[in-house]
Amino acid sequence: MKTVPLGPTGRQVPNVVLGLMRIAQMDDDAVRRLVRTARDAGVDFIDHADVYGDELHGCERRFAEAMQLTPSQRAELTIQSKAGIVPDGPYFDYSYDHLVESVEGSLRALDTDYLDVLLLHRPDALVEPDEVARAFDHLESTGKVRAFGVSNHTPGQIELLRRSVRQPLVANQLQLSITHAPMVAQGVAANMAGLDQSTARDGGILDYCRLHDITVQAWSPFQAGFFTGVFLGHEGYPELNAVIDRLAATYDVPAIAIATAWITRHPAGMQVVLGTTTPERVAGAAQGSDVPLTRAEWYELFRAAGYTVP
Ligand SMILES: NC(=O)c1ccc[n+]([C@@H]2O[C@H](COP(=O)([O-])OP(=O)(O)OC[C@H]3O[C@@H](n4cnc5c(N)ncnc54)[C@H](OP(=O)(O)O)[C@@H]3O)[C@@H](O)[C@H]2O)c1
Question: What residue intervals traverse the membrane (predicted)?
Answer without folding.
Answer: none
